[in-house]
Write a structure and sequence with these properties.
This protein is mainly alpha-helical and 202 residues long. The protein contains 7 helices and no strands.
Length: 202
């Protein structure tokens, strides 16, 4: 399989994976049962993402003419992998910290991550042909808006958390909130790369 097919495939290998993992995260937080099994499913997708990222880099090193600038491809693959990593980290912490239930802040942050992945998938479909840079830019602007919302959710969640007195619980939940919010930061990084691609190739 060539570089174009890996990065911009008709069946969106990387991006279907990306959106599926975020969807599992939402399911985990909204329906906090079978946590170990759900976390394992998220982890499997993260490993698959690692394999795809590795294949992209291998193809990049072997390909003289690439569908996009090599630096763009490298940044896009790296930032997408970061999102997968932070989603996996958040799910792993929910399991290892023995969280009994996901609170409303976790659910809201997970939904923001998921919505961001949907916007990114739409933008990625646009860079296959680059016929409509405005569509890509609109999707990227929406990802930036969602990241700002995640900042607000995190700020309010931490403020409320520090009104409580259970120090161990504060540490655990704050860590999970921050992992989820960082995933939205990484989504914004992906959006910035996609926006630059749209501008560069328009």
């Amino acid at each position: 399989m060539g570089l174009r097919e890996l990065l911009l495939p008709k069946d969106t290998i990387f991006f279907d994976l990306f959106e599926r993992q975020a969807g599992l995260l939402v399911d985990l937080t909204e329906n906090f049962t079978n946590v170990k099994e759900k976390r394992h499913a998220i982890e499997k997708l993260e490993h698959k993402g690692d394999q795809i990222t590795h294949e992209i880099y291998e193809q990049l090193n072997r390909t003289f003419i690439t569908p996009l600038d090599p630096g763009e491809i490298s940044r896009l693959a790296s930032n997408l992998d970061d999102v997968l990593d932070y989603i996996d980290d958040a799910a792993e912490k929910m399991l290892t910290y023995s969280i009994e239930s996901a609170d409303s802040s976790m659910v809201e942050l997970a939904k923001l991550v998921h919505r961001s992945t949907i916007e990114i998938e739409s933008a990625v479909k646009g860079i296959r042909s680059l016929k409509d840079p405005r569509h890509i830019e609109e999707r990227c602007i929406e990802v930036n808006r969602l990241e700002n919302l995640a900042d607000d959710v995190l700020a309010h969640a931490v403020t409320d958390l520090f009104k409580t007195t259970d120090a161990i619980r504060i540490i655990k939940l704050k860590d999970i909130y921050e992992q989820l919010e960082i995933a939205t930061d990484n989504c914004e990084d992906v959006a910035n790369v996609l926006s630059n691609i749209a501008i560069h190739h328009s």
